[in-house]
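Exercise 3.2. Students should predict the tertiary structure of the chain below and write it as structure tokens, then compare their answer with the key that follows.

Predict this chain's 3D structure.
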Amino acid sequence: MTRPRLLALVLAGGAGSRMGVLTDDRAKPTLPFGATHRLIDFPLTNCRMSGIGDVWVIEQHNPHSLIAHLANGRPWDLDRTLGGFRILHPYTDGASEQWHEGNAHAIHVHRDFIRECDPTHVLVLSSDHVYTLDYRDLLDAHDGSGAALTVVTTEVDGDASRYGVVQVEGDRVTGFAYKPDEPSGSTVTTEVFLYDTTTLLDALDAVAAEHGEEDMGDFGEHLLPSLVDAGQVGAFELPGYWRDVGTIDAYWQGHADLLGDDPVLDLHDPSWPILGRLQYRPATHLLTGATVDDAIVAPGSVVRGSIVRSVVGPGVEVEAGATIEDSVLMDDVHVEAGAVVHRSIMGDGARVGRDAVVGASDGDITVVAARARVAAGATVTGEVRAADERS
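Answer key:
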């Protein structure tokens, strides 16, 4: 029996507009998660731990931060001489400009490269979802089902309207609705798709012929519905944690899932370490007067104040008398003496002046852009942009 050959395509080109100022100058897949990781580290780690050697990343918006982090695949041991890691860019071929118009179109643009690679299966992954999964288990289920496409599903609490909602009977997907206004259930796709290669490429060609290349859109608009209607789609239930952290609230909640005596999400499994391009910083320094309660504090941080129920990235400084509560602080944030940060997400290099108050203990999450400045004594909520010091 011929051994299946998988090609993984990681979709990392979205604009990230739902993340507001956090993605003004960086690709969403490079947003920190859990203080020391990046969002794209999760699918790339899953590929590495699942033994997948051919991994391609499709990029588009704000690519420089993404390319720098990917480091040619080296952090995941994907920088091989033959095959291995590749970054796929939008391009012009002299006849047309191949700017990606949705994720289905993004793959269709690169279809000739996929044919040249000649995999038996194509694994399509999102780059802003937090989960762990051995994709070999998915491949085993797919090959035993007779399906041409297997989608990984999960159950979500609350509103399912921002997902692709599926109906499943046994191991078959019998119905699909893309981001419906009134979801018919709580079973959704995790945007992990395992295709037989021929099925994927033929279906993309059919969608392009029917709707035009520029109107192929995302998978859920035309591609998936056509395959579901043809009875070709199987279902594989994800056996653990999953969260789409592509919105401000979900990103904040994903970090909250890391905290507590019995966290919903535990990243300390030594058998499945989350790999990535880690920073080299000195150890965290907790000085006299510092208090840290139920928090994650990355290396390089210097703490003289109080950190409670928060996730703090590398190089953060919290001065004496400052308090951080229920917040996410990215790299190199500086919170001056007496300042208070409540229920906030603070971008790289942001600074909070002495005795300022950022956010509130209830209400919406406050978001402070990278390198933004909050003036001493100010009280701010909502969204703080880097261009204007808020006072």
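Discussion points: The chain has eight helices and 33 strands. The chain has two domains: 6-256, 285-384.
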